[in-house]
Write a structure and sequence with these properties.
The complex is a heterotrimer of chains A (about 70), B (about 240) and C (about 250). By secondary structure, chain A is mainly α. The chains are: A mainly alpha (about 70), B mainly alpha (about 240), C mainly alpha (about 250). Chains in contact: A-C, B-C. The interface between A and C is large, with 38 and 42 residues.
Chain lengths: ~70, ~240, ~250
């Protein structure tokens, strides 16, 4: 919508500035998608590691408790 | 007055004699076992014939692509040769012996580069004959042979370094093409272009091919230097 | 950097990057002018260049990590290298895809073997292969050493590829014949269209590049922290397995 407004101020040279807007959308959508997938991957890996870490700390703690 | 008995010492060989010793050792082994070159030749023949069929029995299209096919075959067969040659060392544990010997690491590197280059060049001689027959193009020209030799040297220089790493991994053979082929691009591009220039009845002018040949030489120089500098990081155990 | 400082810095950068990216998006869509020849689709250019630039930066950082590791075998250099290559690969993928999506309306082709695109493809393959190599080596120290050597050779290759194609193209323009001449000319340099004539465009580009650099830094710290966690987990795993073996006997 904003683009339509903006483009109405563009020079009317007969070339429609909005003709390739689907490509514009596609491009940004894909770039954001790649970025977000990476961020999600980082978050997921971190969560899994934290979980493994907690689990192992529990095991070791039980061990220490048994020993004492 | 008798001198105290001298301890037995062996002078460490100089760099170039070490290189030569290693190259000669490889050549001698190959002479006796004929493992590496044989496989490379068979593989290449099969590949070329397969390419021919894949491109259709119409040789016209294949002819256009023949230079590219030649290099592709060399690259692929090269990975075989590299794997075989370096794996043999590991199998027989001769490699560990080499490492203990008073031989500089990069002498081993250079020695292997020379020996494997020679094996591959032998293969290429046969390939040239096959290609001349199948595609009817003047691959036999000495300039073409020279370009092939220069290109092979650079490829093997990078290859020995990379293969020394890949055979120490879990994936071994399979990993090598994945690692090495992307690295060979800046070599293949000018090399293929240079060879193509000689596929016409009329010989090209030096000015037309000089950039391509200089690029191949540059690749050779940089890869060999990188190999010499980093090889010992790859083989320390 | 100790863990608490790392956590705090990471959080700061995360927020900064998010804000900067939002600001950049606003700038791109509301501040930057409409480009004359291509219209609004040109706006892809800002993100495209931003990601390409930061992607290259990432690989330089990785090269630095690799060289430093060979000089002093400190784990932190390997961590820096693997984090940078991973992030660089992400940015590079973004750059390739955005370039392709932009190329279709601009030159009527999704792909083109121009010097830059060829170089970028090889770079992508080499750095993806980096992970194959790492995955195949079990020993930590060896993995780091091999990775360092491979990063150095890869970098060399990429520079050579670019030089190669640039040199060869000047001699043999016919090689790339079939693709549009304008595309060839256009694919060189940053000014891939009618030109960065407007100051507003330059400002927008700078804003985007800064936002991407902040994102790179944020992701880098996050990835480094992730690696620390991984290392810690590995350590604990061996302790736990020792303990469990003790229990069994």
């Amino acid at each position: 919508m904003t683009l339509t407004i903006l483009s109405s101020f563009a020079l009317q040279t007969g070339v429609d500035p909005n003709q390739f807007n689907n490509y514009l959308f596609l491009g940004y959508a894909v770039m954001w998608l790649i970025g977000l997938i990476y961020v999600a991957s980082l978050a997921m890996r971190q969560r899994n590691l934290r979980r493994d870490l907690d689990l192992m700390e529990d095991i070791l703690q039980d061990g220490d408790q048994e020993a004492s | 007055m008798s001198e105290a008995p001298q301890p037995l010492t062996m002078d460490a060989p100089s760099f170039w004699s070490a290189v030569w010793i290693i190259t000669r050792k490889d050549l001698r082994i190959e002479q006796h076992t004929r493992q590496t070159v044989g496989i490379m030749i068979m593989f290449s023949l099969v590949t070329v014939i397969m390419f021919n069929f894949a491109l259709g029995t119409n040789l016209g299209a294949a002819r256009e692509l023949s230079t590219g096919l030649l290099w592709a075959t060399i690259l692929l067969a090269g990975t075989l040769g590299l794997n075989r040659s370096l794996a043999i060392e590991r199998e027989n544990q001769t490699f560990d012996a080499l490492l203990i010997a008073p031989v500089k690491r990069n002498a081993i590197y250079l020695g292997k580069v020379f020996s494997i280059t020679l094996f591959t060049l032998l293969l290429e001689l046969i390939l040239v004959v096959v290609f001349v027959v199948f595609f009817n193009k003047p691959f036999w020209r000495p300039q073409v042979l020279l370009i092939l030799a220069l290109g092979t040297f650079g490829y093997v220089a990078a290859g020995v370094l990379i293969t020394s790493m890949s055979i120490q991994t879990r994936s071994r053979d399979v990993l090598l093409p994945v690692l090495l082929l992307p690295l060979s691009l800046p070599l293949v591009l000018p090399a293929a272009m240079a060879v193509s220039a000689f596929m016409f009845p009329q010989l090209p002018l030096w000015g037309e091919v000089q950039s391509a040949i200089y690029l191949v030489l540059l690749y050779d120089l940089l890869m060999v230097t990188a190999g010499l500098l980093t090889y010992h990081y790859v083989v320390e155990s | 950097m100790d863990l608490t400082r790392l956590n705090r810095n990471t959080r700061i950068l995360n927020i900064a990057a998010a804000l900067a990216l939002t600001f950049a998006m606003l700038t791109i869509f509301f501040y930057a002018p409409v480009e004359q020849t291509m219209g609004n689709v040109q706006r892809i250019f800002y993100f495209h260049v931003g990601s390409a630039w930061v992607g290259s930066l990432a690989f330089l950082v990785a090269l630095f990590g690799g060289v430093m590791f060979l000089r002093q075998a400190d784990r932190k250099w390997d961590t820096l290298a693997v984090a940078s290559v991973e992030i660089g690969l992400v940015f590079l993928s973004m750059a390739i895809v955005s370039g392709s999506v932009w190329g279709k309306p601009a030159w009527n082709t999704w792909w083109l073997w121009s010097p830059r695109l060829t170089m970028v493809t090889i770079a992508w393959l080499a750095y993806a292969a980096y992970f194959m190599l790492r995955g195949a080596v079990d020993d930590e120290e060896r993995r780091a050493r091999f990775s360092a050597v491979y990063v150095i050779i890869s970098f060399l290759t990429i520079i050579l590829t670019f030089v190669s194609i640039r040199v060869l193209r000047d001699i043999h323009p016919v090689v790339f014949g079939g693709a549009m001449e304008s595309a060839q000319g256009a694919s060189e340099g940053l000014q891939e269209f009618s030109g960065l004539d407007s100051t507003k465009m330059v400002i927008t580009l700078n804003v985007t590049v800064i936002a991407f650099t902040l994102t790179f830094a944020a992701w880098l710290l996050n990835r480094i922290r992730l690696q620390r966690l991984t290392d810690q987990t590995q350590l604990l795993k061996s302790r736990v397995s020792e303990y469990l073996q003790g229990e069994a006997s």
